[in-house]
From TrEMBL:
Residues 174-307 form the GGDEF domain. Keywords: Coiled coil. It comes from the Bacteria. CDD domains: GGDEF. The lineage of its organism: Bacteria, Pseudomonadati, Pseudomonadota, Gammaproteobacteria, Oceanospirillales. Its EC number is 2.7.7.65. It comes from Thalassolituus marinus. SMART domains: GGDEF (SM00267). It is an enzyme of class 2 (transferase). This is diguanylate cyclase.
Amino acid sequence: MNKKPDKQSNDAYPALLTVVNSLDALIYVADMDSYELLFVNEYGRQKWGDPGKLRCWEYLQKNQSGPCTFCTNKHLRNDEAKPTGVYVWEFRNTVTNRWFQCRDEAIYWPDGRLVRIEIATDITERKQMESELDAARREAEFLAGIDPLTSLNNRRAFSDLGNQLLKETIRFKQPASLIMFDLDHFKQINDQFGHESGDEVLLHIARLTRETVRQADIVARIGGEEFAILLPQTDLEQAGQLAERLRQTLMNNTVNIKGQGITTTASFGVISCDPECDELRLDQMLADADAELYKAKNAGRNRSVCR
Ligand SMILES: Nc1nc2c(ncn2[C@@H]2O[C@H](COP(=O)(O)OP(=O)(O)OP(=O)(O)O)[C@@H](O)[C@H]2O)c(=O)[nH]1
């Protein structure tokens, strides 16, 4: 039902306008179909200038040839073009480069048409603080050696633990091997199901890997979708067998993502070090395993290549 303004609100209009113009937040009203701006408060005029006859997407954003792709109008009314209530979201404005929390709602304008009203509060400082806290948390986790997503060792811990293990390997003239693997066409999973689903798949792979290797093996996520396993007292043949077992485990286990069973394959590079050598460098072993992994990718993926 369209509400007509009553006498009381007409009398209060100048005072209400003063209130709206005193707020430390952008308030604007735009026609939901033509995007015509019907009102911009003083805060908006100070930051974005005089709206003139500009439409909301021309006035508030830059470099756009049409309505914003992220326009929230679709969330504000239902299939019968009736208002659906308040929609809150966060956005970095392309003109001011500042972050805003936006509270959008479709309401009926006095002439009966449906308009969007947005109240946008600058939250840039809060966002900065959140991102600094996030960076500090990541740094602390990195220093602690844990990959925050999978709880496997990160590259730093892999390097510390791995170099320690290699020293022992040389001292006791034992064999050691390194498996490096990288998921195949992982980008497609992110693209099709979203980054969060991609993260779930990585978690699933980490779980399967840990379940497949021995306690003494050092497992790490050393890059986005790249993993490494350092195997003490393991020769090339044994490491090759383990890589094959893990490859088949990944191939034969599905993970449920958004109601769909997803199977991920991976390509493996496997190398072994000479038990008689005098020096072993983990970074060189990683580079060698990476070269074999590269061959596995080039040969068609979902395979392991041993050197
Ligand atoms: N979800 C998620 N994706 C990640 C993470 N780290 C890296 N990625 C994604 O992994 C993908 C890697 O893509 P590419 O390097 O093209 O490799 P690929 O699609 O697996 O293809 P091939 O390796 O050639 O088989 C990219 O889409 C990255 O965004 C992460 O932590 N989480």
